[in-house]
């Protein structure tokens, strides 16, 4: 709850990517600001994180998935999530190529515009680099999402920023979806005709401008 007593926004974020790209390291770095080198590869965990974004108290639930064989084929995870952090290692070409498959799977399940952010992790290993910064940027442009190159081991402000930015996007989307949809002006004009030119028995409206002068039925929208 915020200081005003209002319940803050909530977002559910799923972290996906091939085994060993640093998903757990990234999540642990964001939550604790620490890096511990060894993370349980079988661990699949949801963290509830209370924090502040733009002066608002918020709750983020973050699902750290485990390995590709588990992550990619879990429809439940995809349906649960509001937004997705897609991670590859800049020193692991295969993990980068796999992102497109993961994204396709997400699109197939979610159908509507997907909110995600693309992460190239392990930027400290630039001597082992197999994916250029520009390739990452281009893929993010294709996917219409933000892109960050980061190092979970070195840390850095971008790690908090990427989670906060995704949270903002999720909040914006939820607010848009909550707004009642405005009818088009064409629809409003049609309705007006229905009201103005309703037949006396109140059953069928007719067109006032029928070229034959005969009664014409308007097709309801
Ligand atoms: N040099 C370097 N190593 C990293 C970085 N992030 C993670 N690692 C290391 O990469 C290995 C795998 O990291 P994890 O966080 O376990 O990877 P994961 O994606 O969670 O792997 P799974 O849970 O098996 O899917 C560990 O040995 C980490 O210490 C990084 O930014 N730089
Ligand atoms: Mg892990």
TrEMBL record:
The entry's keywords: Hydrolase
Stated name of the protein: small monomeric GTPase
Family: Belongs to the small GTPase superfamily. Ras family.
Catalytically driven reaction(s): GTP + H2O = GDP + phosphate + H(+)
Pfam family, one: Ras
Region (Disordered): 199-221
Superkingdom assignment: Eukaryota
UniProt signal peptide: none
Database matches in InterPro entries: P-loop_NTPase, Ras-related_GTPase, Small_GTP-bd, Small_GTPase
SUPFAM superfamilies, sorted: P-loop containing nucleoside triphosphate hydrolases (SSF52540)
Class in the EC hierarchy, top level: hydrolase
The keyword Kinase is assigned to this record: no
EC number, UniProt record: 3.6.5.2
One function term, GO molecular function aspect: G protein activity
Polar residues biased stretches: 201-215
């Amino acid at each position: 709850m915020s200081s005003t007593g209002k319940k803050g926004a909530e977002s559910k974020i799923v972290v996906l990517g091939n085994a060993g790209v640093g998903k757990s390291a990234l999540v642990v770095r964001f939550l604790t600001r620490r890096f511990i080198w060894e993370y349980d590869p079988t661990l699949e965990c949801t963290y509830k994180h209370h924090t502040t974004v733009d002066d608002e108290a918020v709750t983020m639930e973050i699902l750290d998935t485990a390995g590709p064989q588990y992550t990619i084929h879990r429809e439940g995870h995809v349906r649960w999530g509001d937004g997705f952090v897609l991670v590859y290692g800049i020193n692991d070409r295969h993990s980068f190529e796999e992102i497109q498959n993961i994204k396709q799977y997400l699109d197939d399940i979610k159908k509507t515009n997907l909110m995600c952010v693309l992460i190239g992790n392990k930027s400290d290993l630039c001597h082992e680099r197999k994916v250029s910064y520009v390739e990452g940027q281009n893929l993010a442009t294709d996917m219409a999402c933000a892109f960050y190159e980061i190092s979970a081991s070195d840390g850095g402000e971008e790690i908090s920023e990427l989670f906060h930015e995704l949270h903002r996007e999720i909040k914006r989307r939820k607010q848009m979806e909550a707004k009642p949809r405005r009818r088009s002006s064409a629809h409003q004009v049609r309705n007006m005709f229905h009201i103005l030119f309703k037949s006396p028995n109140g059953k069928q409206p007719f067109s006032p401008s029928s070229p034959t002068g005969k009664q014409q039925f308007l097709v309801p929208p």
